[in-house]
Each structure stands twice: as C-alpha cells, then as structure tokens.
Design a protein that fits this description.
Elements: H1 23-68, H2 73-86, H3 93-127
C-alpha cells in the first residue's frame, strides 16, 4: 500500500540575512568563555578525582587503624574530644549571659590597664625631656 498523501515542503522566501551589529563579537566572546569554562570543568574534575583517591586512601588507613585498635596519644585525645562533644550539654541563655558579663568585665580591666599604660608613657615622656 502506498501512501498517496503527499506532503508539500513549505516554500521559504529566499531573503538575504544580514548579520546583526556586534553579533560576531558576541559569538567569539561566548566561544572564548565556553573554552574557559570547559578548561575549568576539566581542571575541577581532575581535582575531584585526586581528592577522591586521597579520601579513599585515608579511609583505608583509618579502617586498618580501627582493625588494629591501636591509637597514638594524639589520636586518643582526638577521640576523647569527639566523645566529649557528643555528650555536651546544650548552652543556655544563662550561660551566654554569664559569658557576656565576663567579657564586659575583662574589657573594663583592659581599658583600666590601657589607661595606666598611657599614663606611664606620659610620665616617661616628661622625664626624657
């Protein structure tokens, strides 16, 4: 069976297409930007692969350390610190207020010491004249 329906191709008007002002400059700048971005993507993909391999190595080392169950003093302190952080009590508003009061007191003492120091500088300046 033949399909007797003939499709007619649309007849396009043949017109002269003139370039838009600045289009060639825009196209070249976009191509340049595309090349830069492609290079950046490539560089970052390489970086990700490198970091992934470093992470895999680090994980293997940590797994082997866990298997041996031997920790150095520094590692032991890190583990204890992490354990303490898991068991921390949440900070309350009273704790924050107490810390702020202590900060204000320390700042007041600092100003007092700075005033005394500037007074000593003035005294020494008078003696050296």
């Amino acid at each position: 069976m033949e399909n007797n329906c003939k499709t007619e191709e649309p007849k396009l008007a043949r017109s002269v297409v003139s370039p838009m002002a600045g289009a060639s400059d825009k196209i070249s700048s976009l191509r340049s930007r595309f090349d830069q971005l492609t290079a950046s993507v490539s560089r970052y993909e390489t970086r990700v692969l490198k970091q992934a391999s470093q992470l895999a190595k680090r994980n293997r080392r940590e797994d082997s350390k866990d298997d041996r169950d031997v920790t150095s003093p520094g590692e032991s302190a890190d583990l204890e610190f992490n354990d303490r952080r898991l068991n921390e009590v949440p900070i309350t508003a009273a704790d924050i207020e107490r810390e702020e009061q202590e900060i204000r007191e320390l700042e007041r003492k600092k100003r007092t010491l700075e005033d005394r120091l500037s007074g000593m500088d003035r005294d020494l300046g008078g003696l050296l004249r």
